[in-house]
Amino acid sequence: MTDTVLRDSGNGKRVTPSRERQAGPAAGGPEGPDNDERVASRREQRAEPLYIGRIKVYPRKVRGTMRRLKTAMLLLLLAVYYAAPWLRWDRGPGAPDQALLIDLPGRRGYFLWVEIWPQEVYYLTGILVLAALGLFLATSLFGRVWCGFTCPQTVWTDLFMWVERAIEGDRNARMRLDKQPLSVDKAARKIAKHGAWLVIALLTGGAWAMYFTDAPTLVREFFTGQASLTVYFFVGLFTFTTYLLAGWAREQVCTYMCPWPRIQGAMLDEDSLNVTYRTWRGEPRGKHKAGTSWEGHGDCVDCFSCVAVCPTGIDIRDGAQLECIGCGLCIDACNEVMTKVGRPQGLIAFDSARNLALQSAGQPRVPWKPIRLRTIVYVALLLLVAAGVVAALGTRSTLDINVLPERTPLFVLLKDGSIQNAYTLKILNKQRLAREFTLTVASPANARIEIVGAEPDGTLAAKPDHVATYRVLVSLPRAEVKDERQDLTFVLTDKAGDDSARHRTVFRGPHS
Question: How many other β-carbons are positioned within 10 Å of the β-carbon of residue 408?
């Protein structure tokens, strides 16, 4: 048997391209035996080859709770994305004042009051781990809520669809327009739509580039032709990809390109909430005349409204499907129909596999369980990683050193018989003030130190927010070199305060 879904081909006929399915109760839950047989029978009747060309989807406009929530998230996320590069943050003289900035030439990351150096990339790693754990937790609780409401592909596709409806009309109007021969009106609408898409794509690509350079400067240089070729290239690249993915690829990205639908099943269980068609209530489906009895008839009137509003063009009544992004627009469409025919809302709803199985068997529902082992583990890991990141940020030093032993040669035998090693010392001054330091060797105790480039009194100077580099020569009496490799510890101390940094390296000598 081949699992299938319903699509509208654009010519009024229902077609059923085959799609991969998510199996098991975690993906949507078992159905009652009678209803399962009826659904399976319909799938067999609509079976199609595994591979089929893309069929354009014409989602219809819908109103309801899910649509309002999606619109609110759309406006919020777009506002944050486009406005964030323009936020200012005073970091003092000589520092960039953009609140969020990844300064690749300067090798810095600025996030409000936090400045990340290349040596501190582990902070970004921690943030990425937090984001991943948050996604796992949200998926375990609410299914593909990320895909349906906050994924950039969903957000920009929704925006592009809004533009399309505003210019070409709703579902039926767009279908008629595509069937019409080329005319002045059709050409004007198509040009206006694609022009608007390109403007949005350009703004999107430009905003992305603003996260890597000063936003006002970028805008001025971009439109006066003074920006670098790199800027024009990346703005053009992101303009093209936004236009392609949100305007043309759309549901193909979610179905074929994105790996998340194939991964997220591992985060689901029988208590996860997913967009679900309640077969126990909807079957047997069919047309219903007003005023007639509902006896022996399911609540589903087979109106296909749920299919018409779906951004990926699937029929949620066919069960859990890979293409379902969990946006819930089919819930709004079905609730609207249920209200019109005088039946209770909720034929399609966010529900758990456990309750779907219970009600299919005629048993009462059980309360939803958001607190369970899986979610407890995710929350615990979230708190643990968050605590680690916060602790690291709270205890981070404004001073760091890096010592690299020179390997050519590994050591030098001096005239007095002592052994000398050479090192490259890098001082990371993370303050916006010039600082002076002293360098000592904590162990071995008899080590002699010579610093090339230091002041006569041995002072090491470091410019504000700068990496200072020195060559350090360390020698030990031959009697102190007991092995061809032994520990050596440098201590760098700020002359104006108590700030210090230690670094352990190795001192090499000849074979014993």
Answer: 5
In a domain, 20, yes or no: no
Asked if residue 318 has pLDDT above 90, the reply is: yes
- 103 to each of 118, 210, 211, 215, 230, how far by Cα in Å? 11, 10, 8, 12, 14
Whether the CB-CB separation of 44 and 292 falls below 8 Å is answered with: no
Is residue 120 over pLDDT 90?
A: no
Structural domain range at position 421: 399-508
438 within domain boundaries: yes
SS (H, E, C) 303-333: CCHHHHHCCCCCCHHHCCCCCCCCCCHHHHH
Euclidean distance between the first and the last CA atom of the chain, given in angstroms as a whole number = 76
Coil, strand or helix: which one is 294? coil
Q: What's the CA gap between 246 and 399, in Å, rounded?
A: 46
Residue 291: per-residue pLDDT? 84
Q: What is the pTM of this model?
A: 0.81
- Are 216 and 102 part of one and the same domain? yes
- DSSP state string for 226-289: -S-HHHHHHHHHHHHHHIIIIIIITHHIIIII-SHHHHGGGG--TTSEEEEE-HHHHPSP----
Same domain, 384 and 419: no
